[in-house]
Amino acid sequence: MKLHIYVNYKETCREAFQFYEKHLNGKLISMATFGETPHAAELAKEREDKVIHARMEIGGTVLIGADIPHAEPMRSAYLTLIMDSASEAESVYELLADGGQIFTKMQQTPFASRYAVLRDRFGTSWMLLHQ
């Protein structure tokens, strides 16, 4: 048994996965669009290039996602990145915070030398830690 994370994106899955691949050393495994499905002819033209299923690996964990028109931002669950250094934590924080929403600014805590909680511009919630 394995546990993977599935995130619905409000029409930004491709952009989010490309961003995570470029900036978080993610490895895109696969990406399929609604236009590639057997029912593509029944879809509205604007849905054809939207992602029905994408998979990538980030830090040994598989992230799966799709474009869902009415998706809501993540709440009460966070993708948690454990960083190898304080400088890496700061760098990733700046990257993900750009255009996003900060819940807890990067800081030192009793359990981590660097800790932050935020939602990126794609609606994904993140917890960043350097212990």
Report on this model:
The strands form two sheets. Strands 1-4-3-2 form a four-stranded mixed beta sheet, with helices on one face. The model has no long low-confidence stretch (mean pLDDT 95). Helices cover 18% and strands 41% of the residues. By secondary structure, the protein is α/β, with parallel strands linked by helices. It starts with a strand and ends with a strand.
Task: Give the rounded overall mean pLDDT.
Answer: 95
Helix and strand content put the structural class at alpha/beta
Multimerization status: single chain
In what order do the strands lie side by side in the largest sheet? 1-4-3-2
- Main sheet properties: 4 strands, mixed
Superfamily at the CATH H level of the largest domain?
Answer: 2,3-Dihydroxybiphenyl 1,2-Dioxygenase, domain 1
CATH class (first level) name of the largest domain: Alpha Beta
Please give the number of β-strands.
8
Number of domains: 2
Which fold name corresponds to the CATH topology of the largest domain? 2,3-Dihydroxybiphenyl 1,2-Dioxygenase, domain 1
Uncertain segments are none
Number of H- or I-type helical stretches: 2
Q: Output the radius of gyration.
A: 16 Å
Order of helices and strands: EHEEEEHEEE
Ends: how far apart? 28 Å
CATH-level-2 architecture of the largest domain: Roll
Report the helical percentage: 10-25%
- General form: elongated
Q: How much of the residues is beta strand, in percent?
A: 35-45%
